[in-house]
Specification:
73% of the residues lie in helices and 0% in strands. It has 18 helices and no strands. α7 packs antiparallel against α8.
């Protein structure tokens, strides 16, 4: 790959990162997560600029080492971004102290040992290890997030953070390749150019910029709704404040005062709200809204569904939606409306989630299920 092509990719990356950073900064309802994304984009821009300068100028070894130090920042920034989207309450000072410490330490050491080849090997290897480690940590955080939200929401659109999971999986592959190349260079003196990596930078920036701009803080709407109901006498916990207590584990259930008869009564109240009130038709129904409707604390609803019915909130509500969809098919609604239109009427809000849920419940796709009904009729 020629130098002019590399320069073109790097310049494009710098401009692109600045444009996206400007878009995030100009959002009317900016969140702390948006500003962290701005920092992430500016980090990409700075990194690309330093690489561009290194490629086109004869500069000191010290300046050549600086871009390598920046690789120690990507993981911590990604992790704090995910935590902000999840409204995870963290001690930012302590987080910065622990997670950004390697960057500050290596930056200080770079000024002392910038001409030491052994130190450069350690620095390069540390950057690769840090990238892999934070990707793994982020994947575990996302896994925990998905386990949590199924007990809080009936629809996953915009809150599952699947795009970050795909992003991290892609980054893991890149880091593994970089890690292998660094090992080959440092241990057996085989050097394979990393010029191909520059091609991925604009794609990476486009991906995080596009999806990040659309992304909202997961518990933002629930938090705002909870604030409006602070003065009511209904006992409702805000998932934003008490996320970990909302989804109880087995040890917590053992300490709970709820007995089998209590859970049976709670479940009857839930069934009545679903069947009579048809709450499942609300596309954005969440645990807080159901709790307010039946006047039962959220953690009691969660415990009842998890222990009494062996279901989470997401599966419980969507089972009603699937049942409503099937009833409409049997009445012949599919003759006048599309399957997706009927699904939306039943409370689903995306085609992908509808198809996935329907197949999980019935074992068949919606179109296959309809064909069976047509054949039987």
């Amino acid at each position: 790959m020629t130098l002019s092509i590399l320069n073109g990719f790097l310049i494009f990356s710098i401009i692109q990162a600045f444009l996206f950073a400007g878009l995030f900064s100009s959002k009317k309802c900016r969140t702390s997560a948006d500003m962290i994304m701005v920092s992430w984009l500016l980090l990409f821009s700075l990194h690309s600029f330093l690489i561009l300068v290194n490629l086109n100028n004869e500069i000191s070894l010290l300046f050549q080492r600086l871009p390598v130090n920046l690789t120690l920042l990507y993981g911590p920034v990604l992790l704090i971004y995910v935590n902000e989207l999840r409204s995870k309450i963290i001690d930012r000072k302590r987080f910065i102290l622990w997670h950004f410490a390697p960057f500050f330490i290596f930056s200080a050491l770079t000024f002392l040992f910038f001409d030491n080849s052994s130190f450069h090997r350690i620095l390069a290897l540390s950057g690769a290890v840090s990238g892999l480690l934070y990707c793994i940590i982020t994947l575990f955080v996302l896994k925990g997030h998905k386990k949590q939200i199924v007990d809080l929401f009936s629809n996953m659109k915009g809150i599952s953070l699947n795009w970050i999971g795909k992003l991290v999986n892609g980054v893991v592959i890149i880091w593994i390749v970089v890690f292998v190349l660094v090992i080959l260079k440092q241990l057996v003196q085989i050097e394979i150019p990393l010029n191909w990596f520059f091609v991925a930078i604009p794609l990476f920036i486009s991906y995080i910029g596009y999806h990040g701009f659309k992304q909202q803080v997961v518990f933002q709407s629930v938090q705002n709704e909870g604030a409006r109901n602070k003065q009511t006498e209904i006992e409702v916990e805000n998932p934003l404040i008490n996320q970990e207590q909302t989804r109880l584990d087995d040890s917590s259930y053992k300490k709970s005062s709820l007995k089998e008869k209590d859970m049976e009564q709670i479940f009857k109240s839930l069934e009545n709200a679903m069947k009579s009130g048809k709450l499942f038709l609300q596309a954005n129904l969440n645990l807080q809204e159901l709790s307010e409707n039946v006047k039962i604390p959220q953690h009691h609803i969660t415990q009842t569904l998890n222990k009494y019915k062996k279901q989470n909130f997401y599966d419980y509500v969507n089972a009603y939606r699937v049942e409503a969809f099937i009833n409409k098919l049997q009445k012949g609604d599919a003759d006048n409306f599309s399957l997706l239109g009927i699904a939306y009427d039943c409370g689903f809000n995306s085609k992908s989630s509808f198809n996935r849920v329907f197949k999980n419940v019935t074992g068949k796709s919606p179109s296959e299920f309809r064909k069976n009904i047509d054949i039987n009729n």
